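Work Package 3 (structural annotation) set out to generate three-dimensional models for the target panel prioritized at the project kickoff. During this period the team completed the workflow that converts sequence records into discrete structure tokens, so that structures can be stored uniformly alongside our sequence database. As a representative example, we reproduce one entry of 322 residues exactly as it appears in the project archive.
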Amino acid sequence: MSTGTLTEAVLEFPDNRLLIDLCGEYDRNLTDIEARTGVQILRRGNLLAIHGLPYAQAEARAVLEALYERLEQGRAVDRGDIDRQFRLAEEDDAEDQLEMFAGGPVEIKTRKKLVEPRTDAQKAYVQALFGNELAFGIGPAGTGKTYLAVAVGVNMLINGQVDRIILSRPAVEAGEKLGYLPGDMKDKVDPYMQPLYDALNDFLPGKQLAKMIEEKVIEIAPLAFMRGRTLAHAFVVLDEAQNATTMQMKMFLTRLGEGSRMVITGDRTQIDLPRGVPSGLADAERLLDRIPGIAFNYFTSRDVVRHPLVAKIIEAYEKDAP
């Protein structure tokens, strides 16, 4: 049969309740799949008829079957899961990389939700976070570098693998203007730490998070506050590391203590340091990339999991870069 011939494939789903969840509210999930593949999907009782070109039809069928299997396992399906399934289908050897650790799926359990990487790069990153004492996540905005790191930190905390979580960022934008901002030091630096609070709120109930912060089980602090400390039995994240100087990066990396894990995340294209001041992230890449036990993980615009336009915006800027 010619690849240009429209055909129909019919899928039968035995559990009508799960089929309703698969289709989504007002068949929104089916609409998303139609838009991604160019097929037309019609529901007939407990059947779905897929009309389209054979290659597109096969892609839609594979996604529908995988999502239904997910529902049979008692897990929900939302638009992010649909996106994830398409990304897995697009990447080479995706099926072989779906399993890790004890043969289970790549997933991170937190108190509020189950987090699943959506791309091969994200899966490799999560595996590196669990398997290495020091890991770097480097790539553009929206690729999940910080979000996944915080999720792994919460997972390790609730499983007793670490005693506390420490999240840090350089407050580069504040500079010497901090003194002019209202409030105490926490009030001055909190706006720069807000993305870290946002991630934590996704994984921990509000009251529990507030108590952990009050009891210093979870700390969120500017990079400058790390000097002189030894961070033992902790999960430590340095976010926006491209804005750390070479000396700050060295200072932070040497805080690593017994029983701790450390994650460094950054984006080479968003350096806010003064002109002529080298980025500590670039120096760390150059100096540490061959040391055993340190993992470097890289992301591209293909790994962006925010709005689809974000990936296109990043690609446009990358093409225009000198």
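The CA atoms of residues 293 and 311 lie 31 Å apart.
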